[in-house]
Amino acid sequence: MERTLVLIKPDGVRRNIIGDVISRIERKGLSIVAMDMRTLSEETARTHYEEHASRPFYTSLVEFITGGPLVAMVVEGERAVEAIRSLAGATDPVSAAPGTIRGDYALQVQENIVHGSDSTYSAEREIKLFFPELG
Ligand code: CMP
Fold first, then answer.
1. For the chain, how many structural domains are there in total?
2. Is the dihedral of CA 21, 49, 5, 63 positive or negative?
3. By C-alpha distance, which of 100, 5, 108, 19 is closest to 64?
4. Which of 22, 26, 32, 81 sits most deeply, having the most CB atoms within 10 A of its CB?
5. Domain carrying residue 20
6. What value does the mean pLDDT take over residues 52-74?
7. Which of 6, 52, 112, 114 to mutate to test the pocket of ligand 1 (most atoms within 8 A of CB)?
């Protein structure tokens, strides 16, 4: 079984669509094995997005992701990394297919509702960062 980290970002929480996002994940056959609501510290946000540190949108991304509570969860299932990325849709919500989370709910590339780890390697790193007790 594979695990991945999913975040319902502060825009998703503000828009009251936590239930829909969770329901899409469960409907797909994936299981949520850990979950909580928290506001990220700047340090955690910077570490989480460290691969984007040199990008022009990095400061704004860190401000956005720390700007309100988010829902963090560990999702488990067969090919969970790929399955979540497929449910989420393309990073740019305007290009994301209708029927995906971003395709249905978002218009801006930064405020794109959800995050899913982009590889099993990233998933392991991100799960350790958010849920160290799971190893
Ligand atoms: P996420 O899947 O969490 O991974 C990196 C995040 O950076 C991405 O979703 C977006 O929220 C954000 N992002 C990616 N590209 C851009 C961009 N061009 N401008 C602003 N934010 C971006």
1. 1
2. negative
3. 108
4. 81
5. 2-134
6. 98
7. 112
